[in-house]
Amino acid sequence: MNKKSKIQPKNYTREFRDNAVRLAKMPGKTVAMVAVQLNVPVWKLRNWIKESNENLERSLDLDELVRVQNENKRLKEEIEILKKAAAYFAKSLP
Question: Which of 6, 21, 42, 90 could join 35 via S-S bond, C-beta 3.0 to 4.6 A?
């Protein structure tokens, strides 16, 4: 009986994938060229690039969210100060 051997997919480290994406984004380099140099399937490198771009967008969105939340907190504090000031000056009116 002949058993067919399954080809195990290669596992690449996060560092390897990040470096591959950086290389592919360099001027004068193509995805296909980098994939051949690193012995990685082109489709896999393209997926890594797509994932990297999505992660960057999410990171930028999170940065913007944090900025808006901090601004919102600051504005709420300013409103509270203004309310207290208005109440103080309203008491001193005849």
Answer: 42
Give the number of other Cβ atoms within 10 Å of residue 19's Cβ.
Answer: 14
pLDDT by residue, tens only, the chain of 94 residues:
455 555 556 789 999 999 999 999 999 999 999 999 999 999 999 999 999 999 988 998 999 999 999 999 999 999 999 999 999 888 877 6
Specify the pTM: 0.61
- Please report, as a single letter, which amino acid is at residue 38: L
* Single-letter code of the amino acid located at 21: V
Distance in angstroms between the alpha carbons of the first and the last residue of the chain: 105
